[in-house]
Amino acid sequence: MLIFISRELTADSPFFHILPVDQVEVIGESLVAFDGVPFTELPEMDWCFFSSRNAVRFFFQGLKAAGLPIPAGLKWGVLGEGTAKSLKEQGYVADFAGNGEPQSVGDAFGIVAAGQRVLFPRAAQSRESIQKILIGLVTIVDLVVYTNAPRTDFELPCADVLVFTSPLNAQAYFAKYPLLKGQKLVSIGQSTEQALRNLGCVDVTTAPIPSEEVLAEICKTQLAL
Q1: The domain spanning residue 174 has which CATH number?
Q2: What is the pLDDT, as a whole number, of residue 81?
Q3: CA-to-CA distance for 179 and 177, rounded, in angstroms?
Q4: What are the DSSP calls for 48-70, one per residue?
Q5: From the CB of residue 105, how many other CB atoms can be counted at a distance below 10 Å?
Q6: Does residue 225 register a pLDDT over 80?
Q7: Fewer beta carbons within 10 Å, N or C terminal of the chain?
Q8: Pick from 1, 108, 16, 97: nearest CA to 50
Q9: How far is CA 197 from CA 32, 60, 213, in A?
Q10: What is the residue range of 24's domain?
Q11: Are residues 54 and 79 located together in one domain of the fold?
């Protein structure tokens, strides 16, 4: 059996220890191309909030390229577990870490950071889900640090389960391949689920918590392992 997930997986990913390796092959590949957007200064801020691992990656790349220091006393916020891990790899621990679900995270963070200035490093094509929730609660400071666009230069075998981790990944896949009879669809969250439905996919299982562990457990159930 074969599972495709639209992100690169690390060696310690739950997909490699929850699923039986003797029965399941997992292919992890992002179908989105990323490019950093340089910046030369940082605005005044109390918090820096990351909604994705790529936002962390390109923010710190941009800081290094521009030779900019981290402001003293800056507090860090992250959307979920994966983003918190990426931030920790940069040497910082999140002062606020959400559960990955935008509405509940936005509501909770709006209380913690009420009235303060919050920088949001983001993709140029971001849906800005958290920012929309926080309008009127915090001062939103915008910083585009990368661009993302669907790829076309990929070839994938037919998988039994397709796991999509963003709307753009779903769009890239179905621009190239049809949904085949018997294939099962798994979505990391509601925005990705909606993108799949907009593409004509009806039967989609959405993770209640956007983590690789939950996605792997769903795949295990889907394949009756």
Answers
A1: 3.40.50.10090
A2: 86
A3: 7
A4: EEESSHHHHHHHHHHHHHHTPPP
A5: 24
A6: no
A7: C
A8: 97
A9: 19, 35, 24
A10: 2-31+152-222
A11: yes
